[in-house]
Each structure stands twice: as C-alpha cells, then as structure tokens.
Design goal:
InterPro entries: OTOR, SH3-like_dom_sf, SH3_domain. The protein has 128 residues and is mostly beta strands. The chain contains one helix and nine strands.
Length: 128
C-alpha cells in the first residue's frame, strides 16, 4: 500500500513540475499581516497601466483597485515589489495573486499592519 502511495505521490509531483516552472526569487523575506499572508494588508489604486513581465506578476490598468497581501523585503526595508490581486468590479471577485511594482500604486487604506516577517519559499515564485 505504501509503495502505491509513493508511486502516486511521485507521479503527482512529476506532473505538477511539468506544468510549471520555479522562477528566480525576488526577495528572501516578505512582510505580511499574518504568518500565512492570507489577510489583506491594504487596498491600493493603480496610478498607471502595468503589463506583467512574466507569470510571477499581475497586469492592471490605471484606476483599478488592488488588494495587497505582502510586501517583499529587500535589505531590511520594504522592497520594490508587493503581492496582491486586482479587484474586478464586474464580478465582485479578486483575481489571480501576483507581484507588481509598488511604485505604480498608491496605498489608500490599511486594513492590518504588515508586522510579520515571513521567509519566502520557492512556491512564492512558481509559475504555471
């Protein structure tokens, strides 16, 4: 039974790895509102359009709202990139979570302070 489980698990990992790629890490730490980085830190408004350079990043248009979930830490200070998802007015849902340049948004409302420093992992920079 254990052998079958291991074969299944090995096959699952192989299939998962085939469909995606681990990209370079943008930082080794991130600031979050909680240990799992699942609570929104703030709401930000896009100041201009942004077209993602690769699958780690999200696209947005000027004026769109973005929920911010983490801020990458670079040398003990908030880094150039934040992670968040675009709020879509037409369906009241959040979009895909990805990174974006913090310089292209203006933080409008803070929900929870980003006081938890969490190490990033390879999965933080995984692309499908």
């Amino acid at each position: 039974m254990m052998r079958i489980f291991l074969l299944f698990l090995t096959g699952f990992v192989a299939i998962w790895a085939v469909h995606g790629i681990f990209m370079d890490r943008l930082a080794s730490k991130k600031l979050c509102a909680d240990e799992e980085c699942i609570y929104a830190i703030s709401l930000a408004r896009a100041q201009e359009d942004y077209n993602a350079s690769d699958c780690r990043f999200i696209n947005f248009k000027k004026g769109q709202w973005i929920y911010v979930y983490s801020k990458l830490v670079k040398e003990n200070e908030a880094g150039e990139f934040w992670a968040g998802s675009v709020y879509h007015d037409h369906d009241n849902e959040m979009g895909i979570v990805g990174y974006f340049p913090s310089t292209l948004v203006h933080e409008k409302g803070v929900y929870k302070e980003a006081t938890k420093e969490v190490p990033t992992t390879d999965i933080d920079f995984y692309c499908e």
